[in-house]
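INFO  loader      accepted 1 record
INFO  loader      residues=89
INFO  predictor   begin
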Amino acid sequence: MSTRPSREGWHGWDEYAPFYDWENARTLGRRDVPFWRRIARAGGGPVLELGCGTGRVSLPLAKSGIQLVGIDRSAEMLARLRSRALRAG
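INFO  predictor   done
INFO  writer      dumping tokens
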């Protein structure tokens, strides 16, 4: 049995929050949002987004009328989501 502490994948997201949108805009753009919108609409009901982060996917889905609940473990990511949602109205 190993005595090393286990590393969980959620560590570091608070520190990464300021860079998340910037990096994804350069690597993914918004090319994946139409895919997630189609999947959400096909489900025919409310959507639960686990790890919603800064709302990169959640906000466009919500703007298109999809009922959505997002959760995230990172308080910094959620703070950015709240700020973006307020600016978007």
